[in-house]
From TrEMBL, chain A:
Its main location: cytoplasm. The keyword DNA repair does not apply. One of its GO terms (cellular component) is cytoplasmic exosome (RNase complex). InterPro entries: ExoRNase_PH_dom1, PNPase/RNase_PH_dom_sf, Ribosomal_Su5_D2-typ_SF, RNase_PH. It is found in: Cytoplasm; Nucleus. Belongs to the RNase PH family. One of its GO terms (molecular function) is RNA binding. Residues 71-238 form the Exoribonuclease phosphorolytic domain. Keywords: Cytoplasm, Exosome, Nucleus, RNA-binding, rRNA processing. This is Exoribonuclease phosphorolytic domain-containing protein. One of its GO terms (biological process) is poly(A)-dependent snoRNA 3'-end processing.
Automatic annotation (TrEMBL), chain B:
GO terms for cellular component: cytoplasmic exosome (RNase complex); nuclear exosome (RNase complex); nucleolus. Residues 23-34 have a biased composition (Basic and acidic residues). It comes from Glutinoglossum americanum. The lineage of its organism: Eukaryota, Fungi, Dikarya, Ascomycota, Pezizomycotina. Residues 1-55, 125-145, 255-279 are annotated as: Disordered. Its main location: cytoplasm. Keywords: Cytoplasm, Exosome. This is Ribosomal RNA-processing protein 42. Gene3D superfamilies: GHMP Kinase, N-terminal domain. One of its GO terms (biological process) is exonucleolytic trimming to generate mature 3'-end of 5.8S rRNA from tricistronic rRNA transcript (SSU-rRNA, 5.8S rRNA, LSU-rRNA). Residues 262-273 have a biased composition (Low complexity). It is found in: Cytoplasm; Nucleus, Nucleolus. It comes from the Eukaryota. Belongs to the RNase PH family.
Length: 368, 426
């Protein structure tokens, strides 16, 4: 078995491997990594700081969102940073601006998203592979071991594979695959810094996480992955119907105090004694005490079409069982996510145009 | 009729073994497999449907009609009949089995184990900080909200012929898991005390190789298994090490039932208003062809779909509301159905080989004049009746229509839940 495990992630060998491995039915459920020196398996628990529990008069405050509900974080996107790949891109979201209060803790209050994407291909399939009329797209998303507060292993886990499936769905709809029969393209994304699922102060107990197969942070990561992969594919010069961009929106709880003027567009009604439901785009999970539902779309803005949709959540309230109410909630969430994707598309278009101009300029210089 | 078609496709002379597990294929072929024949490395038919372009075009055209004609003559919202039974595995806390008439069959077992909670200090201090006592029931109920961790539920899917790191089992598991955890009600119920909790293992086994996307099958089976699951009754108090009643008759349901008379109440006698009970989720698979929406698609329909969408819903039963007076008209009261999650699935139609129209086919146009050869741009070619794999995405309006069809009163969601109620869950 260990022989098979060696190259599990390399797509080139996957065909042969599949053939070889499929004879085994007794594949262990949890594949353990025996080839590297790993830390103790779950033997240690993270340090809990007294300040995070509010003991002794010192407390660390949850960062709060100071952006308007319909404003994205700043995006840095640049293509062509990995010279050896046929196309590549790097995306970074700036960490949310601090509220200006001095912070007692040295730990950063919120995370930023940093993604790097490399596209290899299109290249011919190995001769042993069967004929494919369309380009064979494979996507890999891997969190770097240092990408989150909890260390990630070297072998992709279920949530990373699930993200890769989402990304594949988003990209397969835009790539014009029949122009490259018998060839393959690989999209490899490394998450250098991932979005957190919740504020670190909440980790000692409770707090909103979303779901074990990817919490709320995963939805932001996926939207970033769609955008960065789209830029890298454009950089590789693979024909697409449109540039697909990712957008996220969420329904969150906002404290009543912060919410002086209810905005007709984003306000979703009152919840409990001291909070309101609000629709926000590009939510940073650490900034919100409670996220009820979130939605990611992969959106083609020139065709007004969705290639990828991932919505999950549960909106509290007794009236939300009625069909029109739910339709309004889901519809609102979907529309806001699309709005976010349209805004991201501006940055994406600009980055791709910049790179194209640079290339055109270089070609001109070479000719002269 | 559906059954007949499946049998036919099984006897396809080109791929005699296409639906057998791969191990058997290997034995059948023996030595000739050594030089890699294409069939040996053929991926499962699920992701690369083995239909020719004319077959695809035929199915696609009949599904585009108004009203559409499905290959097995069902109506767009009609489900295939199923055979279901529960409590079939004596060694589990709850189990179920469902068979589809096309031979798909799944078994689900739910097992629960007591496990020590991590992060004890945090939860202790958190509770201390919350306020004094919590005298009333109501307060305690509030206090138990949000104590569960999502890691307390572990769901695994085994599909014969697929590796456990293949895309299909991974995203099927993720999809079922996220619907299960969406409300947080289930994990909160697994909390025993501050130091202990139940760990729930849900093991799904698909007995047959996947003929079509097995989402509805797996999700319905899981739904029934969870409904039939029971946990032993706790007899220790507060933060003691947990001790349970060894009388299985006294056990309580994981998903509380309506307490009629003899049923022991899950947590405490309901002097106050009973809480609304949330039922386990159900995930439905929906396909779209053109403007037509189809539920519970078969393999042929999935192979030509423009959009595949998995929709998870759950029902909340509110016992506190008195049942409405039976009206003279026989309309049923609306059910409290809530949408939990939505996700698109990559439709396999995008991977199918395109058909070649006569104008571009050199075997047909060979003898003709150069004048006809000019018709090589896409605009000049007549693509009617020729299979073209779908490109691009789908419109928002269509997705809205699907959601409406699922959750509305008298919609598909109510129909499915009503059908499931007919199964005796013990």
């Amino acid at each position: 078995m260990s022989m098979n495990r060696k190259n599990l992630d390399s797509e080139d060998t996957k065909w042969e491997l599949q053939e070889f491995v499929s004879g085994w039915y007794e594949i262990p459920a949890a594949m353990t990594d025996r080839r590297r020196i790993n830390g103790p398996p779950g033997g240690s628990s993270p340090v809990i700081f007294a300040s995070s529990l509010g003991i002794g008069g010192r407390s660390v405050k949850r960062p709060s969102r100071i952006r308007p509900p319909d404003e994205l974080r700043k995006i840095f996107l640049k293509t062509g940073l990995t010279p050896l790949a046929s196309g590549s891109a790097y995306l970074e979201l700036s960490p949310s601006a601090n509220t200006g209060e001095t912070c007692d803790s040295l730990a950063p209050s919120s995370s930023a998203l940093k993604l790097t994407c490399a596209v290899h291909g299109p290249r011919p399939l190995p001769r042993s592979a069967p004929f494919t009329p369309q380009i064979q797209l494979s996507t890999h998303i891997k969190f770097a071991s240092f990408a989150a507060r909890q260390r990630r292993g070297y072998i992709r886990d279920a949530s990373e594979r699930d993200l890769a499936v989402h990304l594949e769905t988003a990209l397969r709809g835009v790539i014009i695959g029949n122009r490259w029969p018998k060839s393959s393209v690989e999209v490899v994304i490394t998450v250098l810094e991932g979005e957190e699922d919740r504020w670190w102060g909440d980790e000692t107990g409770g707090g909103t996480t979303g779901g074990s197969a990817g919490g709320w942070g995963m939805m932001n990561v996926l939207a970033g992955c769609i955008t960065v992969a789209s830029a890298a594919i454009a950089d590789a010069g693979i024909d697409c119907l449109d540039l697909v961009s990712g957008g996220v929106a969420a329904i969150v709880k906002t404290p009543q105090s912060q919410h002086e003027a209810p905005d007709r567009d984003t306000d979703m009604g009152e919840i409990g004694k001291n909070g309101r439901l609000q629709l926000v785009i590009d939510p940073a999970p650490s900034e919100h005490q409670e996220i009820y539902a979130a939605c990611v779309v992969g959106y083609l803005s020139t065709r007004d079409e969705i290639t990828e949709l991932w919505l999950k959540g549960n909106i509290p309230g007794t009236t939300s069982f009625s069909t029109p109410m739910q339709m309004a909630e889901v519809g609102g969430l979907l529309d806001k996510a699309v709005e976010a994707a349209v805004a991201v598309r501006l940055v994406l278009g600009e980055a791709v145009r910049e790179a194209a101009e640079l290339k055109a300029g270089q070609n001109r210089n070479n000719k002269e | 009729m559906c059954h007949r078609r499946v049998v036919e496709s099984n006897q396809n002379p080109d791929f005699p073994n296409q639906y057998l597990p791969q191990r058997e294929q290997r034995q059948h072929r023996g030595d000739e497999r050594a030089n890699s024949s294409p069939a040996a490395t053929m991926p499962p038919p699920l992701t690369h449907p083995l239909f020719s372009p004319p077959e695809l075009s035929y199915t696609h055209t009949s599904l585009l009609l108004q009203p559409p004609i499905r290959p097995d003559a069902r109506t767009p919202t009609q489900f295939r009949p199923i055979i279901a039974e529960t409590n079939i595995l004596p060694g589990t806390n709850g189990s179920a089995r469902i068979c589809f008439p096309d031979g798909n069959e799944a078994v689900v077992g739910v097992k629960a184990e007591v496990e020590r909670s991590a992060g004890v200090i945090g939860s202790l201090l958190r509770k201390g900080g919350r306020g004094e006592g919590g005298g009333g029931d109501d307060n305690e109920e509030e206090g138990r909200k949000g104590v569960g961790e999502n890691a307390w539920v572990e769901l695994t899917i085994e599909i014969p012929g697929l590796r456990d790191d293949d895309a299909l089992p991974v995203f099927l598991a993720a999809m079922l898991n996220e619907a299960l955890l969406a409300s947080g009600d289930l994990v909160d119920r697994l909390w025993i005390n501050q130091r202990w909790h139940w760990k729930l293992y849900i093991d799904i086994l698909l007995l047959s190789p996947p003929l079509s996307y097995p989402i509805p099958l797996l999700s319905l089976t899981t739904h029934l298994a969870l409904l039939s699951a029971r946990l032993p009754r706790l007899i220790s108090e507060a933060d003691e090490d947990p001790l349970f009643d060894n009388d299985w008759e006294a056990s309580i349901h994981l998903y509380p039932r309506h307490n009629k008379s003899s049923e022991p109440t899950p947590s405490k006698p309901t002097a106050t208003k009973p809480k609304p009970r949330e039922q386990p989720p159900v995930t439905l698979l929906v396909t779209v062809v053109g403007e037509n929406i189809f539920f519970d698609p078969s393999l042929e329909e999935i192979a030509v779909a423009d959009l595949l969408l998995a929709v998870s819903i759950s029902e909340t039963i509110d016992d506190s509301e008195p049942p409405p007076e039976p009206k003279p008209t026989t309309t049923k009261p609306p059910r409290n159905i809530r949408l939990l999650s939505l996700r698109t699935i990559d439709p396999p139609a995008r991977l199918t080989p395109p058909g070649v129209p006569d104008a571009l086919n050199t075997a047909v146009t060979q003898a003709e004049t150069p004048k006809n050869k000019a018709a090589t741009t896409d605009a000049d070619v007549d693509y009617s009746g020729v299979w073209v794999p779908p490109k691009g995405g789908s419109k928002r309006k269509l997705i809205g229509r699907i959601i409406q069809m699922v959750i509305e009163h008298g919609g598909v969601g109510e129909e499915v839940l009503e059908g499931l109620e007919g199964v005796d869950v013990g």
